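Hi team,

As requested, here is the filled-out complex form for the manganese (II) ion run. I kept the field names the same as last time so the parser does not choke. Let me know if anything looks off before we queue the next batch.

— J.
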Amino acid sequence: MSELVTIHRHLIEAQAAHPEASGELSSLLGSIALAAKIISRNVNKAGLLNVLGGTGDVNVQGERVMKLDDLANETLKACLRYNGLVAGIATEEDDDIVVLPSGPASGKYVVFYDPLDGSSNIDANIPIGTIWGIYQRTTPAHDGPVTAADFMQPGSALVASGYAIYGSSTMFVYAAGGVVSGFTLDPEYGEFILSHPNIETPDQCKCYSMNERNSEDWGPGPTALLAAVKSTSPRYQGSTARYVGSLVADVHRNLLYGGIFVYPEDRKSKGGKLRLLYEAIPLAYVVEAAGGTASTGRERILDMVPTHIHQRVPLCIGNSAEVELYERHSTEPT
Ligand code: AHG
Ligand code: MN
Ligand code: MN
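And here is what came back:
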């Protein structure tokens, strides 16, 4: 019988080292983990539940909304709405923030998420995920409901962030206090059990993840990085291309094996495709806690303050050596 270290027990033991921490984070992560279990169940039975395919709607991103995007979004709201800790939500699938009941039931945290990342892969049974982050609200509770300003904080202010990945197994990975912990869902009793304690990324570029179809539009940073990983340099002799099309899956593999993921700005996505608040920031916090780095090529992701909840950014995330190479070439005078 494994040690049965659940998320709750893991946080209680972590809190022993941080007496100032309250049980609130444990309760909040419990709500997010419950949503991940429900989404995992729906993803794993998608072909039998008539939840494949699109809803026919287009979201604020201008992207086709998949039925599972919607279902995951509503599942997270339902799990967060009544735990008395969350004052507001920002989600990829809603144009504006979602203000939760104000008054004494309202909480001091705001949660933001990409309910289902990698949606284009859903119908092909390719790994997808949920990305989330937690801030403390900055506007005083007596001022009334939260506003978008509560989400306009740098990633360095995160209370915790992480992701769920619905793959060959379902995992819940989160970073708090500079430590990255991975839990695997045992579907027989519906509990996430610690399986990857204290994840640290090896300093080896095993995989490079880029959509080369867009490379003719790339600037000097991605162009130099692509040339480097294909060069005869000893560092890249063991490297290989791996690109899933689900950011969570590419980042998770690179977190464990070592590697670099890049989604630069290009002709289709002038300011980059990926969203700063609910994709780049939460993953940057995890990757940096595991020893890597995340940058736009000009700015460290965790230093950036979003200007609006759906702001897009170019993203280079993974081993520090590759991010630094990307930055050196991105900031060279052209
Ligand atoms: P989402 O499904 O939440 O919109 O995210 C999709 C993102 C990301 O998961 C992935 O890395 C990227 O889109 C793939 O984009 P391309 O298909 O343009 O390569
Ligand atoms: Mn996404
Ligand atoms: Mn999404």
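Two things worth flagging: The chain is about 30% helix and 25% strand. Residues 24-44 form the longest helix (21 residues).

Thanks,
J.
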